[in-house]
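dumping this here before i forget
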Amino acid sequence: MEGELQKFKADFFKALAHPLRIRILEVLSEGERNVNELQTALGSEGSAVSQQLAVLRAKNLVSSIKEGTTVVYSLRDPLLTELLAVARQIFDNHLVEAISLLEGIRNEK
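structure:
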């Protein structure tokens, strides 16, 4: 069972391993969107957005509901919003460390 958990985690993080997929999740963390709204928010063409949405759907990270001729997407699990926020905090911490290191190097001159 332990190996299955690591496989799940690895597959989960692989699904997050694309900048456009991360951005889609960030936009969806603000609320439901259809493909046209996602394209506008992301400034990206439809085929790229649709491709990445397919990956996110296959990994059960987003869900979709058909409303007439429009498909509306949302986060499958609201905890994804928290995960993205934690990732942002980790990124910020790394930046602070890098800036401190750079300042230390500059002060040695």
